[in-house]
Amino acid sequence: MDDKLARIRELTEKLNEAAKAYYQFDTEIMSNKDYDALYDELVALEEETGVVLSGSPTHKVGYEILSELPKEAHPSPMLSLDKTKDVDALVAWLSSQEGVLSWKLDGLTVVLTYEGGELVKAVTRGNGTIGEVITNNARVFANVPKTIPYKNVLTVRGEAIITYTDFNRINDKITDVESKYKNPRNLCSGSVRQLNNQITAERNVHFFAFSMLDTGDAAIDDRITTRFDFLSRMGFDVVEWKSVDASNLKDTVAWFSAKIETNDFPSDGLVLSYNDCVYGKSLGRTAKFPRDAIAFKWADEEAETELLDVEWSPSRTGLINPVAIFTPVWLEGTSVSRASIHNVSMIRELKLGIGDTIKVYKANMIIPQISENLTCSDALVIPDTCPACGGKTVVRSENEAETLFCPNPECPAKASKLFAHFVSRNAMNIDGLSEATIDKFIDCGYLTELYDLYRLDRYKNEIVTLDGFGEKSYENLQKAVDASRETTLKRLLYGLGILNVGSATAGLICRFFKDDLDAIMNADTESLCEVEGIGEVIAEGIVAYFADEANRAVIRELLKEVTLRVEVNDAPQDLAGKTFVITGSLNHFENRDALKKVIEDRGGKVAGSVSAKTHFLINNDVTSGSSKNQKAKSLGIPIISEDDFLAMS
Fold this sequence. Notes:
The chain is built from 25 helices and 26 strands. The chain is of the alpha+beta class and 649 residues long.
């Protein structure tokens, strides 16, 4: 049976690859005769085994767009596991029992239900009691069986994940650095919960089973190992596992740990379960956790390395951001060689110098940070000239932190970064324009003002001859430009790059002035200060921007190229006047922008840092000792999880 299932997977992959080459790239990688022979073999194997994978070319995929994801209660609660970072604690927990050790995959938990051998329902974990129904999306997961030979009701629990390979493939297509997905889990969460399952299919989501509800057959149900074997026979990919006892548990943990660096899938620990399911159930549960399994989390990885350089990166606002460059180290399964230092104050606090031995880690297992400087040479020289224009730099003090700034209004970095900001995902969302391409177009004279992006057709003959370009690249670029011609005032206003006007502030301004651009352009400081969250400094900056006739001329030309549509927002304004700060990783939302949009649509505001004006800090790790959590606690600001936030609706 295992050989036949392996052959089904192999044939599905080969046939889909051949079809893609033929229909998308007009290329034949196998003859029609060979294709038909393999197709017939796959049909026969599917009929014999009763297993049909979601990607099978023998079954046409039906894409569907929904207006919303309905919610549904789970047949039994999906509890979180108790956890430990101590291997000795695992050994003590297992005691004299046999156990099963497996990966704790870092994706989105999904529950599949089969009836009569057909996949009839898929529901996300949600809050453990109620999840979202994603049946249409699960049917296009890369490896989920559509049909299985078991005809009774079967409920399978597993983790939907996106591999690092696919994560990098998707991110490589996004030119704006700030718009790139932060980690595979967030990308997977958004992919699994799409309203259009064609997007889910394109993201190549995989499902790995890690448990199932009882079938009523003791030969299957009584042990974890027999459950896993049964699920494998049904065509499921089962999470990688090992049988353990107290004598080999430590060595097996080490075996899993050694594989992290080469794994193509994200994981955040291991799960240890009693193999004897009857024994495990007899232990019952605590108020929070079941007693038949426990999670093992690796301690935060920290590595020593040598600081090789500090790169100073100018921005569109004139701020010059320091970035540490160090000898590459492995952290959380990936190679890391760069980390933001944030500002001049942090450089001085860490007493950095080239050649220093530093410790680095990944904050929230995502963002590289310097935790400590073991040398403390304090020898780093803050540059007195801008790396982009060579002009004199100044050190400014803002929000109790010193930053390096280039005051030159003609600095070329400002133009390059402004164009990159304008085309970014939250602004005009013009795909395919990397900063390197923008720099090349500026150097060639194709881009001077923002509206020149919509007039690149004047230079078609020149562009198609540039290195890395051709007719196809030019056509794709023009399609992306044309797709951005219909947009919203919020996106346009944000894209202009007005100092201190982020996406959230742009939305608040548009809402206050009822999407009236003329009213915004002619507003005075006093009226702008009436907008929630805008103070005198920001208001004066906005007034100064629109008082500049050159800026007004750019906007007039842009309005010749784009059409502004009014966004209809029917969401209740129940968060009006409330300010939120979001930190840490997310489970229910694709990324922070998605959560931010929900808050803003409901009248709230999202800020970047905790202050006395903050009403709620959203952090799924509500007990962490992070600086934002500590500040929120010191100010008496509630720290809530995503589930707490969703319960507010």
